[in-house]
Structure to design on (615 residues):
RNA sequence: GCGCCCAUAGCUCAGGGGAUAGAGCAACGGCCUUCUAAGCCGUUGGUCGGAGGUUCGAAUCCUCCUGGGCGCGCCA
């Protein structure tokens, strides 16, 4: 991002009325917070003779005790030692007395002290039934927020070249872009996913040239090769040929010139090969669940920035160098001078992005645009955003570069020259084969009914979870072996947890929403600590969504989902659902299990990991 | 040389001012006549890269240092 403009600069809708009586945990926390502030101020006034206004509300935070037996919420009182001129444990003790009384009056729960903390124990019966009902009523919408309602967001991601197929790096980009889009949408924003296809330039001409020379009229069909790979093979062929043919580079440039001059034969070839490339890439998008609301092509936008640059020149935002090239001077903000138009008047990469951004805002006036692009381009976007700001576009202040780190292999960097680049399709095939292997080795082919389809979903789950569990800004190591193992903290583990719950629900014979609702006595039935823990975790999902949206970090969701699944797995092992003591208890545990499945499923959707009924 | 980013268990990663720093993998030991063992439980493993500083309190914020990544084109 590197721009001063934080996402926080975006106009925010207040989060106050997200459906009354809904978002139970949020409401409960807010009540306790209000109460604690109120009591703290009274304490300050009554016992310390202080002005209540001296109590800084923002210093009161609500956290979670490190151990469950300590309580459900924690209020650290250390920050107030200074104002009170008293030791935190003493303040905690005094506050606790008042807070307990006030909470008792309002039936909110109990409080006790532990050192400098006041720990709160919630009335479980006040949360259990409402939380389960909310999850099971809202279903796929449970967790949806309005935090970003009214904010129109463009998310640009993927941006493939049409001279080769997608590789592992694209898969991280796609997973991030798709996931962040879904998360923002779930947080209330109206999201437009856009792609920018890099379909022009000398590198594109290279595969065209090789095809012209060596293609001999072959087609993807005639060769039986996926069409983007077919094109990619000619790019490889070009590089082989160029290694011994000195004239290769010049011939490619000549071809680019013919392309720019509109030479029919060149254009025809370009169109044909582009179609192959794009069709193949779109096939992979369909496979990975990635999609776009609008697709921009560089061949259509590369000239668009030029007029804007010329306008800016007239207004003195830019300057013309002696040789006729046009520049911006950003030295005053510790950046450099940067060329915007070549001396021959042609566009540069940056120019094109200027035009594209302006075009997008015309097409769909957004409040905010997020570029999902690798961290190598940090500087590029820093400059781009400043240029747009200096051109006077107020929306330029809400442009954001979601920069993500490199994907490396255990052996080191992927290098195209050494052939270590991991191809997206091959990787998916490999994961799929592993999943088939796993299913058959457990003799579950008959159970899953659709072996190929199930394996594909497991493969995708493994891949996307793996790619998203690392925070975007960090480089990551992709270990194919680990991603294939399906053990531990993985996508398949989450899918498996859901499949086991689904199995219980099927066996209960009551799969409709109404039949899974908790009975009146649910709070008396779910008295185990694991059950309370699960209810609390379910209630926290909306907060996880908000946090993921605010930080543009899908890893918040992967972590949340994994922790929920892990708690449930322990519960599943420990406690029988269908063979519980009484029908009411069966029904209650069934409702809890169904709610867990629903919330994990909602989380999975946000990280583009397919949900599985059986596996 | 300058700028940005990263550094937490053997490995891959969470945690981004609050209570004894977590998980997965790996290693070792238990648990399948019971709702899917792709699972569950336990043991082992960390002076949070180093040094200062801010703070009642620092893995977390600031400064410097070290190591690594990326960038500094009229390439994209």
């Amino acid at each position: 991002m590197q721009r001063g403009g934080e996402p926080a600069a975006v106009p925010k809708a207040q989060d106050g009325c997200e459906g009354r009586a809904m978002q139970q945990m949020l409401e409960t926390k807010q009540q306790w917070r209000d109460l604690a502030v109120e009591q703290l101020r009274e304490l300050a006034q009554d016992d310390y003779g202080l002005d209540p206004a001296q109590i800084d509300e923002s210093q009161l935070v609500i956290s979670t005790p490190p151990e469950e037996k300590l309580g459900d919420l924690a209020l650290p009182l250390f920050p107030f030692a200074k104002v009170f001129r008293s030791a935190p444990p003493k303040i905690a003790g005094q506050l606790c007395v008042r807070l307990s009384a006030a909470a008792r009056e309002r039936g909110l729960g109990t409080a006790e002290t532990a050192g400098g903390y006041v720990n709160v124990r919630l009335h479980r019966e006040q949360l259990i039934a409402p939380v389960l009902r909310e999850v099971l009523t809202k279903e796929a919408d449970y967790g949806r927020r309005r935090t970003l309602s009214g904010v129109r967001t463009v998310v640009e991601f993927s941006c493939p070249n049409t001279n080769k197929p997608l590789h592992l790096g694209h898969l991280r980009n796609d997973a991030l872009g798709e996931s962040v889009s879904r998360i923002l949408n779930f947080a209330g924003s109206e999201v437009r996913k856009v792609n920018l296809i890099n379909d022009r330039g000398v590198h594109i001409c290279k595969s065209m040239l090789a095809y012209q020379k060596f293609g001999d009229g072959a087609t993807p069909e005639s060769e039986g090769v996926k069409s983007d790979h077919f094109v990619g093979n000619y790019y490889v062929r070009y590089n082989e040929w160029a290694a011994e043919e000195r004239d290769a580079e010049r011939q490619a440039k000549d071809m680019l010139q013919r392309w720019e001059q509109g030479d029919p034969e060149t254009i025809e070839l370009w169109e044909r090969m582009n179609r192959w490339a794009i069709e193949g890439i779109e096939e992979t998008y369909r496979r990975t669940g990635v999609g776009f609301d609008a697709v921009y092509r560089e061949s259509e936008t590369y000239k668009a920035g030029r007029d804007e640059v010329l306008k800016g020149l007239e207004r003195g935002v830019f300057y013309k160098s002696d040789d006729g090239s046009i520049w911006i001077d950003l030295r005053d903000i510790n950046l450099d001078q940067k060329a915007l138009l070549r001396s021959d008047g042609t566009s540069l990469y940056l120019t094109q992005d200027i035009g594209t951004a302006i075009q997008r805002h015309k097409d769909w006036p957004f409040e905010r645009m997020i570029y999902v692009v690798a961290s190598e381009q940090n500087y590029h976007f820093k400059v781009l955003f400043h240029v747009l700001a200096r051109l006077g576009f107020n929306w330029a202040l809400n442009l954001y570069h979601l920069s993500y780190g490199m994907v490396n292999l255990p052996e080191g960097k992927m290098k195209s020259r050494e052939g270590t680049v991991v191809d997206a399709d091959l990787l998916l095939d490999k994961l799929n084969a592993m999943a088939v292997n796993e299913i058959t080795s457990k003799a579950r082919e008959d159970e899953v009914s659709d072996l190929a389809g199930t394996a594909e979903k497991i493969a995708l789950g493994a891949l996307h979870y793996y790619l998203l569990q690392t925070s975007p800004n960090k480089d990551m190591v992709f270990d194919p072996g680990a991603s294939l193992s399906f053990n531990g903290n993985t996508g398949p583990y989450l899918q498996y947890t859901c499949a086991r719950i689904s199995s219980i629900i099927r066996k209960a014979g009551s799969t409709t929403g109404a039949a899974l609702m908790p009975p009146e006595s649910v709070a008396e039935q779910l008295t185990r600590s694991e059950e309370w823990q699960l209810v609390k975790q379910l209630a926290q999902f909306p907060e996880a969504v908000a946090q993921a949206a605010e930080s543009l970090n899908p890893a918040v969701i992967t972590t949340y989902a994994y922790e929920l699944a892990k708690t449930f797995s322990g519960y599943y092992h420990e406690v029988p659902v269908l063979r519980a003591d009484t029908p009411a208890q069966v029904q209650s545990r069934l409702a809890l299990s169904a709610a867990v499945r629903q919330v994990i499923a909602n989380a999975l959707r946000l990280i583009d990991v397919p949900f599985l009924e059986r596996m």
Q: What stands out?
A: The radius of gyration of chain A is 29 Å. Chain A has 24 helices and 13 strands. Residues 1-21 of chain A have pLDDT under 50 and may be disordered. The longest strand of chain A covers residues 190-197.
